[in-house]
Each structure stands twice: as C-alpha cells, then as structure tokens.
Amino acid sequence: MKVGNNSLYFAMMLSVAWLSDVTSPTEYEEAETRNVMAENQLDIILPKESSVREWLEEANRMRRRWNEEVSLAIWNYETNLTKSNSEKLSNLSRSFDQWTSSRAKVAREYLEGKYHLDRDSFRQLKLWSMSATPEDIDISKRIYTESEYMAGVYNSAQVCKDSRCFFLEPDLIKIMAESRDTDELLWAWHGWRNATGRQIRNSFQVYVELINLGAKQNGYPDFGAYLRTKHYEFPSFIESLAEELWQEMKPLYSQLHAYVRRRLQQFYGTAVFGRCSTTIPAHLLGNMWAQSWSDIYDLVAPFPDAKYPNIDRIIKQQNLDPLQLQRKSEEFYVSLGLDPMPLEFWRNSIFEKPANSLMDCHPTAFDFHKRRDFRVKMCTGNVSTSYYWRVGHHERGHLAYYMAYRDQPDIYRRPANPAFDEAVGDSITMSSLSLEHMQRLGLTKDAPPHNYETDINLLMYQALEKIPMIAFSYTLEKWRWDVYRGVIPPSKYTESWIHMRHHFQGIHPPVSRSEFDFDPGSKYHVAVNIPYIRYFFGAIVQYQIHEALCLAAGEFGPLHHCDIFNSKEAGEKLLSFMQLGSSLPWPESLEILTGSLSISTRSINTYYAPLLEWLQEQNKDENNPPWNVEENNAC
C-alpha cells in the first residue's frame, strides 16, 4: 500500500512525537507495538520537508540507549550463564535488530532521495542503511534460538577424566600450553572438539541458512558479503586484499613452519607425525587451535644457551595477581598520556572467575555507551606465562579506543574497522614485551645488550605468537566465507576444513575425522558468530601502527628494539586516530596514523627480516623443505 506525502509525513511526525517521550528501548518496544511504525508497513516516500540531521540526531540518541541496555544484557549473561539471562538477552537483541532494521529502511530512502547531503550526513546514512535482519520476525526468533543454543554449548563445555572435569579457561588452555605428554595433549584436543563442535554442527547449518536468508532479503549475495560491507565498506576489495597479503606473508610462514616441524620431530620423534611427514599434528603446537605457537618456544628456541631473558620466567617471577596485572597494563597506557580507567571500571569488572560460577571466560572488553562505564571480563588464572600479560594489554587497547571515541555520534562509536580495534592493543603489547621495556621496569638487570643471538631469539618468540595467527585467521574466515556462499555444502564441512588447514597452514588432525565432527565449531568465534578476518588484518596492520608510533616517539632503530613507553608524542598520535571512531572510511583513518591508505606487509616483513634470513639458512642446511601440499590425501 502506498500513501501520499502528506499522510506519510503526518505518520512520521507522529512517530517522532512519541519517540520523544520514550526513555528506554523497553518503552520503545512497547510504544512500537502500539503504534506500528509506518516504515515497517508502508512503501516509504520520504517528504523533502523532513530533516536528515534531525532524524540522525534522534536515531543516534535512541541507538545509544539501545546499546546501553543490550550491552548490560550481554554482560549479565556472559558473567552469569543462566537460562533467564539468556532469554532476556535474546529477546532484547531481537528487538534491537528489528529497530535497527526499521532505521536502515529509512536511511536507504534518504540515500535514494534527491537530497543535498553533506559528507557527514551521507556517511552516517550509509552506516545506518546496513542491515541483514530477516523480514519475518519468526525467522529472527529462530536465528536467536540457534545462536543461543550454540553459545550455551560452548560456554558450558567441559572435558572430564577420572571424575574431574576441565573448562577451556584456564584448565585446558594451561594443559595445551605446558604439557609435553602427547597422550594428554591428544585427550584435551579431542575432548574439546567432542564437547563443542560435534554438539553444534546441526545448529550451525540451520543458522547459516537463516542468516543468509536475511542478508539476501536486504540486497546482499550472502551473509559474508554483508559482513565485509558492514565492517570494511569495500567487500570485493577487502577479499582480494586478504589474498594479496597472505601471498606476501606465506614465505615467512612456510619457513617458520618447516623449522618448527623439524624441532618437534626431534623432540617427540617422527612416529607421532604418522603418515604426514611434512605437516604438523595440530595438538603439538601449544594451543588448542594451533593459532599461536609461542608456548612451545622452549622446544624451538634458536639459541637456547643465549642469555636473552625468558619472558615467561620474568612475568612469573613478578608474582602478579589478576588485579596487579590490570594495573600493569594501565600503567603503560597512562604513560602515553591516555586517560586512566574510571573508578567504575575497577568496581564493575571481573578479572578472575568467581568460585563455583558458570560464565563465558573469553576475555572481552565492554563499552556500555555511557561516559564512564567501561569494563573487562577475564578468567585470569595463574599469571605464570606471558599469555595473560598479552591479553591484559590487548584488552586495555580496546578500552582505550572506546574511551577515545565516546564523544562521537553513536553510529560512529566503533573502531574504523574491527582489525584496527584488535591492532591497537597488540601494537602496545609489542612494546610491553620488548627487552627494552623489561629493562626499563627493572626486571632484567642482568640482561646483556642486544646481539645477534638475543635478537633472533626475541624475533622467534614474537613470530611464534603472531605469524601462525595470520595463517589460522585467513584459513578460518576463507572457510566460513565459502560456507556462506554455498561453495562448501554441509556435507563437506569437515572435508573442506581439513583440506584448507593442510593447504594454508600445513596442519593435520591427530586423529581421524568424519562429517559427524565439526572442528571449526571448537573455536569461540564460530560458535557465537564473530567474524575472524579482523585478526588476520589486525596481525599485519599492528606492525604499521607500531612503526608509526615508534617514529612519533623518536625511535629510529630496528623496529623490534622499540619501546614507546612514556612517549606522549606517540600517545597523542594514537589518540587522534582513535578519537575518529568510524567517522571516516578506514583508509583515511589509517592514513592519518601511518601515512598509508591501505594495510601493507612492509612493516611486518621489515620487522622479521633478520629472522626470515636465519630460518632460510637453517632449513637449507638441514634439507628441510616446506610442507607437501600433495600429501593431503594421506592425512
């Protein structure tokens, strides 16, 4: 049904009138039920008399209120996994999606109208116009039902042995990092996948069908295309950029892989590798998903007799408790001139898992879209390795970003893209783990100055943490994009996953797998549908950010020697970038910080150039080639 401009104008003014009396999203939901918004029921013809700026101001005001309540509901659920909290979150999120979808329709009409929009209004409308919410509310309910089930399975999963049960964090994480018993590692690896992926396989299949339906109804080819548009604005470019960057990173990864494989074969023997002599069993790399290998540094150290101090040992000797760990990370950010965390942060955050509680232990930073309410939740275990040091500094980077852009309109209260959100904290973490920083803190008084051996050891330790993540994140998201497209049908979820892990990572499962299994579902970001390409781009762009901040700090030596602690100049440069939020397209924000309009491998390859040269010599001398792609069928 169509209505004339005057009738619709009256309907819209009426909606604005009752919206002005609404004080919370809950009241909005009740009011919307009573009034039945015109844009949900009619083919909208927006009158020229309506004000785009006024509409944006009202929409941003309401969005902030929605985000307050949704963020609180997420917090309540993730810190107390009850059915009641789950239902409240599901109902509120579904209502928020419907509200956002209705705003998206209005924004699209504004964009299609003949208005003289200033650049800021145009950009806000573009961001408002993006939605993948299905038209049928019953479909939305089914999406949330499947999502709720998958998250519940993952968050409550345990692996049991001898009447004792183990959660992922900190129990299984610790086993994978510290155990050198192949039977124990296999038990943890296999058990976690049985407890998670296998249980959510069918729900994942249904979930993909439903979210794809919503994406197509909103004009996107599939849900992956919607995500690439929403988060990176240039969907085709971002996919080709990922392929280009991976090809540029592959030489370093291949050499690192070959070296690590050889050292693991020397330590464990070749029998544990089975028929797959050139790939690595996934349970031997110190991490549940083989996405980071730094916890096996002791097995692969290039110069084990060199006096470069062991970072894990240094952190362990500090005997930090979870609160002190947070204080340490805050100390670094404040030294740059960034704001300290408000009192509410220390009062409301959760730094370690409460006894006898069931909570989502995935470390997460929260922005409640208020002026002072920012929080973090972590199930910090024994701070005996660099893992929690890295996580603490990383999460503090999210919080610094949130605090920096809090004065932006709510639609801009998010990072320029998700990769930058991950990269800010990781770039700071690089400085915090440098030998220079450890010496500055007085923790390595007896450490020798930099020399060739200590530099190679340092670069190896950092490469084990970062370079496998690049390969893993690319593999995971490439697999998921093909699932969304329908290139990978449900009948080949496992087959295609094993093939991609082999092809891009040189990794094989330590036990046979079938289509009853669903190993991608053992990863949190698959179970709760969080895009993962952010970690691929983030792991690369963090070196660009690190280089830009080092130059601002007057550090002109090798990048891996740089520590920006106490540099107000570096902090000012970082703050000016973070304050933008998403108010500019991400290439323009990146240019302001780094001088480059695109994500580039130049900085990361410069950083690891000495290590790559050393690895090439080692692998050549030992006749140790990269893995054989043709070996896949045997694995």
Overview of this protein structure:
The protein has a two-stranded antiparallel sheet with strand order 1-2. A two-stranded parallel ribbon has the order 3-6. The chain has a two-stranded antiparallel sheet with strand order 4-5. Helix 7 runs antiparallel to helix 10, helix 20 (452-485) packs antiparallel against helix 23 (533-552) and helix 23 crosses helix 24 (568-578). The chain is 62% helix and 3% strand. The longest helix is centred in the middle third of the chain and has 34 residues, at 235-268. The termini are far apart. The chain has helices spanning 5-21, 25-35, 38-41, 52-78, 83-112, 119-128, 137-156, 168-178, 182-195, 197-217, 223-232, 235-268, 297-300, 311-318, 322-335, 343-348, 386-404, 418-432, 435-440, 452-485, 493-505, 524-527, 533-552, 568-578, 586-594, 602-607, 609-621, and strands at 159-161, 164-166, 280-281, 364-367, 374-377, 507-508. Among the domains are: 5-131, no CATH class; 156-307 and 469-533, no CATH class. The protein is mainly alpha-helical and 635 residues long. The protein is built from 27 helices and 6 strands.
